[in-house]
Write a structure and sequence with these properties.
The protein is mainly alpha-helical. It has five helices and four strands, in the order H-H-H-E-H-E-E-E-H. The strands form two sheets. The chain has a two-stranded antiparallel sheet with strand order 1-2. The longest helix is centred in the N-terminal third of the chain and has 36 residues.
Length: about 160
């Protein structure tokens, strides 16, 4: 294989890793917000914990487009995605009763300039140990765990193969 072919292969892998590092958290955050605002599935505290690393991953992936070395920023984004996946495993375990999680319920209160007490009374209580929606027995936390961990592994493999090419 010529040096030119190796460099082109490295670019393809790097571009794919970069797109995954940006696209996966954007899609997962989009799904989370769609389920929240479109279908009324309000997030619990642990749901929010899973979103924060995705926000960081988006920022790190965007930095990879302008800062060098690109592989470092993409790998850091992959690490953030992996972190969200690990939190998702923990949250899904709480939902399935494998271990105990938070003992308090959470609520999103927005008074919108109105009566704060009434806003508190109308706000939905969200439990972290109850999955508000499942598909084939898998909760949203379970899907986040599977997708995030798989994407992070793919990103790491692409970055490492790109470095060797």
């Amino acid at each position: 294989m010529s040096a030119l072919q190796g460099s082109a292969e490295q670019d393809v892998r790097g571009n794919l890793a970069q797109r995954l590092a940006l696209g996966v958290p954007l899609i997962l955050l989009g799904g989370a917000y769609l389920s929240q605002y479109g279908f009324g599935l309000f997030p619990c505290e642990m749901c929010w914990w899973q979103r924060y690393p995705h926000f960081a991953a988006v920022a790190l992936a965007l930095v990879s487009f302008v800062a060098r070395p690109r592989e470092l920023w993409v790998a850091l984004a992959g690490l953030a995605i992996l972190t969200s996946g690990i939190i998702g495993v923990y949250h899904a375990g709480v939902e399935y009763g494998f271990w105990e999680g938070l003992t308090a319920c959470t609520s999103s209160v927005t008074s919108g300039g109105g009566d704060a007490l009434e806003a508190i009374m109308r706000a939905p209580l969200v439990r972290c140990d109850v999955a508000p929606w499942t598909f084939a027995g898998v909760s949203l936390a379970g899907f986040n765990a599977a997708i995030s961990i798989s994407a992070a592994v793919a990103i790491f493999v692409l970055v490492l193969k790109g470095k060797r090419a």
